[in-house]
Batch of 2 targets.
Target 1
Amino acid sequence: MLGATRHRVPRAFVLEVVRAALRHGGRPDAEVSVLLTDDAGIADLHGRFLGDPTPTDVMSFALDDGIDLVVSVPCARREARRRGHRWRDELALYLVHGVLHACGHDDHATRARARMRRAERAILATLALQVARFP
């Protein structure tokens, strides 16, 4: 059973962020499903699908006909407090990060990670959102 989150996130905000990331990622017409959950919910899915039963910030799955995103809202709140910016901006970063992964970006190698961070910053800038420090 997935955990629920009691943090309200405006649908229009999520749509705007996802659409901007899709445009940048070259998949503007991709269908995207977004699940906003808590740490227990994402840990359950993380364990089932990726073999790691610990909570994470965002998971993304590139599908033939679209993208599935799962985001931990409490993680966004914690990290935003730690990094000194608004939690909605952190949530937007997770959405963007997940979409970019599903569009083929990678962040494991140093050069690929730098490219992905530039893309994240560019997308957030088009939305007038700021993340104080990137991980």
Target 2
Amino acid sequence: MLEVGTAFPQFSLPNQDGQTMSLKDFKDQWVVLYVYPKDDTPGCTIQGKSFTATKEEFDQENIKVLGLSADDVASHKDFCNKFSFNIDLLADPEETLLKQLGIGQKEFNGTMFWNRTSFVIDGEGILRKVYTGVNPEGHERTLLDDIKSMK
């Protein structure tokens, strides 16, 4: 697992619209990168809806919210369209960034999924906090409150 206080790995990954997004795009802006197991599953849907509902609050605090999973761009696009998400979901089907983050995986019905984990990165690209074993319900509130206190 990445150490708090160290530089977050640089990345360039496509979002649900196929637009490449990189950590350097968010210099001077805080970033929440939340890793979720799979598009269009119950907990991941709750989390996406929660971040969509609070996007304006994150924007007001100059915080960019990025979801990340091993699903591809087309899957992310369908997921966003189905639930009218207004946040960016990054596609990492080769699991390059997911592996760099050092998070674990769990098996469900014979398939391995990445553990639900959130990373808070400051405007200089430094990892400020890691949340493991995330409960998708209400997590966005915890993140907002914690980041406000860290600024």
